[in-house]
TrEMBL record:
Pathway: Amino-acid biosynthesis; L-arginine biosynthesis; L-arginine from L-ornithine and carbamoyl phosphate: step 3/3. It comes from Anaeromyxobacter paludicola. It catalyses: 2-(N(omega)-L-arginino)succinate = fumarate + L-arginine. Its main location: cytoplasm. The keyword Amino-acid biosynthesis applies. Its EC number is 4.3.2.1. The gene is argH. Residues 16-307 form the Fumarate lyase N-terminal domain. The lineage of its organism: Bacteria, Pseudomonadati, Myxococcota, Myxococcia, Myxococcales. This is Argininosuccinate lyase. Residues 371-437 form the Argininosuccinate lyase C-terminal domain. Belongs to the lyase 1 family. Argininosuccinate lyase subfamily.
């Protein structure tokens, strides 16, 4: 940008004098919305091309504007556009630089358009691109989890409730639980993208324009599915921004849950897994430490994502129609969400795909029968005993086991029979974790056939992943 150019915000065209510096300092948004330069320029190129096709501006001028905007985009990408606070926002920066390149022809660009519908378009284009980026990163983490699940199809470990050892599952089944969560996240981002992919251009400041615009042509040029149907709503609607923020927040919560398990599993107390050194950090004081910072940062990022969502919801909760300047403050949480989520997803994907899982430690954590107490109760149910009665009988066996200092799997057939007459000697065969899983083949259960089917299903679903 020409440093000698006297900058005066276009929004003061009907006002006298210059804005007070304190108002300028409060109003300036280029430090945030400057990140939308690519979307802003794409929208302007589609808009001016449509204006030319409609005979509203000369075609030669439109061609010069489109070509010059390509240069402006390159200059933004190269960091050659100096941000000037007096120019307020990205739209003004683009238009001022365009004027330096094509002169008065730049004045054609704003016909039939307000900064209100312009910024609404910029955000929708960003949301569409953000959803695509998040989807690609989700796929990468899902593929990393799936690869480890395939490698550990037969690795057994305790499943937990209340962070207490509960029942045996396979590591594959456990990892696939996160694949399911991330799969739902992909569906949410697809829905956000679908609703965001409509063009608000042509809504003007709030009431459209008298110029004969072809809104559908502009939308098609931008790869959008259609146009908004109410100009008041179009310029003030931030639903898609909030939905994107929600999708990022919930995905971040899923990553936080995964991160928490990585933190636990990499401790010596658990010892279930070891992170590759490339995805761990040391201590500034204690040379023996190996910290799972990638997982801890995943938990911390979730708090940030939740804060972004709450910020956007609070911002719009009491705004009258149509546009209000409050909405300028939506840029930081909107832009932050996809960027932070993609960084977190990719870091976790690297950590998962390079991690070492310790199958022998996991198998040892199953203990000697405690995780199979429910199997013993279901043994009685199969023999016609009401479940509550069966539950009570196995509870007595567990209490006896604790007093005797012998695990459930080491109790004798006679001892089992003393807790309930329906216990036969074959109850001892129920204390084999692998056999327990083979008996759990209901849809969604951790039985080997079910797990194999889920591995195949997700392999097929992710085969065309980004």
């Amino acid at each position: 940008m020409n440093a000698k150019t006297k900058a005066k915000p276009i929004s003061r065209a009907a006002l006298s004098g210059e804005a007070d510096p304190r108002l300028v300092a409060l109003s300036v948004s280029i430090q945030d919305d400057g990140a939308l330069y690519e979307e802003d320029i794409r929208g302007s190129q589609a808009h001016v091309s449509m204006l030319a096709a409609q005979g509203i501006v000369p075609k030669a001028a439109a061609r010069r504007i489109v070509a010059a905007l390509d240069q402006v985009c390159d200059e933004f990408a190269a960091g050659k556009i100096a941000f000037d606070p007096s120019l307020e926002d990205v739209h003004t920066h683009v238009e001022r630089r365009l004027g330096e390149l094509v002169g008065k022809d730049a004045g054609y660009l704003h016909a039939g358009r307000s900064r209100n519908d312009q910024v609404a378009l910029d955000e929708r284009l960003f949301i569409v691109r953000g959803c695509d980026r998040c989807d690609g990163a989700l796929v990468r983490l899902m593929q990393a989890l799936l690869a480890q699940a395939k490698a550990h199809e037969k690795t057994l470990l305790p499943g937990y409730t209340h962070l207490q050892r509960a029942q045996p599952v396979s590591l594959a089944h456990h990892l696939l639980a996160y694949v399911e969560m991330l799969g739902r996240d992909r569906e949410r981002f697809a829905e956000v993208r679908r609703r965001a992919a409509v063009s608000p251009l042509g809504s003007g400041a709030l009431a459209g324009t008298t110029l004969p615009l072809d809104r559908e042509r502009t939308a098609r040029a931008l790869g959008l599915a259609g146009v908004t149907q109410n100009s008041l709503d179009a310029v003030s609607d931030r639903d898609s921004a909030i939905e994107l923020s929600f999708a990022c927040a919930l995905a971040s919560v899923h990553l936080s849950r995964l991160g928490e398990e990585v933190v636990l599993w990499t401790t010596r107390e658990f010892g279930f897994m070891t992170l590759d050194d490339a995805f761990a950090t040391g201590s500034s004081l204690m040379p023996q430490k190996k910290n799972s910072d990638v997982a801890e940062l995943s938990r911390g990022r979730a708090a940030r994502a939740i804060g972004d969502l709450v910020s956007l919801l609070a911002m719009v909760k009491n705004l009258p129609l149509a546009y209000n300047r409050d909405l300028q403050e939506d840029k930081r949480p909107l832009l932050d969400g996809p960027r932070a989520l993609v960084l977190t997803l990719d870091a976790l994907a690297g950590a998962v795909e390079t991690a070492t899982f310790h199958a022998e430690v996991m198998r040892a954590a199953l203990g000697d029968g405690e995780a199979l107490a429910t199997d013993a109760a279901e043994y009685l149910v199969e023999k016609g005993v009401p479940f509550r009665e069966a539950h009570e009988a196995v509870g007595k066996a567990a209490a006896f086991s604790t007093r005797a200092g012998r695990p459930l799997a080491r109790l004798t057939a006679a001892e089992w029979a003393s807790f309930h007459p329906r216990f036969g000697a074959d109850v001892l065969r129920r204390f084999d974790p692998a056999e327990s899983l083979r008996r759990r083949e209901l849809p969604g259960a951790p039985g080997p056939k079910q797990v194999k089917a889920q591995l195949a299903r997700w392999s097929k679903a992710l085969r065309g992943g980004r």
